[in-house]
Design a protein that fits this description.
Layout lengths: L2 H4 L7 E4 L11 H9 L4 E8 L5 E3 L20 H4 L20 H11 L2 E6 L6 H16 L10 E4 L2 H10 L5 E5 L6 H7 L4 E5 L5 H9 L3 E5 L4 H10 L3 E4 L9
Parallel strand pairs: 1-2, 1-9, 2-4, 4-5, 5-6, 6-7, 7-8, 8-9
Antiparallel strand pairs: 2-3
Helix pairs in contact: 4-5, 5-6
Length: 252
Amino acid sequence: MSQAITSPWPYPRWIAHRGAGKLAPENTLAAFQLGASHGYRMFECDVKLSADGMPFLLHDDTLARTTNGHGVAGEQPWQALAKLDAGRWHSPPFVGESLPLLDSMARFCLYHGYALNIEIKPTPGQESRTGRVVANEAARLWNTATRPTAPPLLTSFAPAALQAARNAQPQLPRGLLLDALPGGWLGSAQALQCVAIICQHQLWNTETVAQAKQAGFRLLSYTVNDEASASRLIVLGTDGIITDRVDSFKPD
């Protein structure tokens, strides 16, 4: 049986998606600060590598949607990425917000005692390298914690990234992200020695919850933005809810 069930679960139920959902520019320090102001104690973010191997926060492969940059983010050095405006696209109050390094966001969380779900979001073709580097950086950062804190939960849609993270830092908990439940979905998570499965929330029902719990996993859901869905997931007995609506759901 997985350690997910036999060990205490150190994470809160409510997780702020990309920092503060849609209320601030995603994956920025401003978003984390806003999510925290609404009482959230755990955050989800996306991490990929710059061309020179620096782990930083960005969801898309390309820069155009959430910055004033262009092209594939992972093909550019951190020195160039650090100069981009990652807030102007959202709204005037956030003009000048920058792309943060994982180092900066981790230190923010550690200082305040917040938990972090790091989604490993590799540039295509960089799955193993990204998983390894992100896991090593996360381990280094959390080893500097001066007070007891939950370890970062490393998740990914890319099994190769999770496998590389496991090889590099096997003590860090991992979760497999799924947007469908193909045959062998439980076996895939077991092979990666994951503690959690994180699904598109509509995939959880009485049957799938029972199967995953029997296999020893903790169950999380994305992205839950309405009260009926959240209530259904709580009744089903799932463990974590990732939401954009940090202004609507009061965290436990």
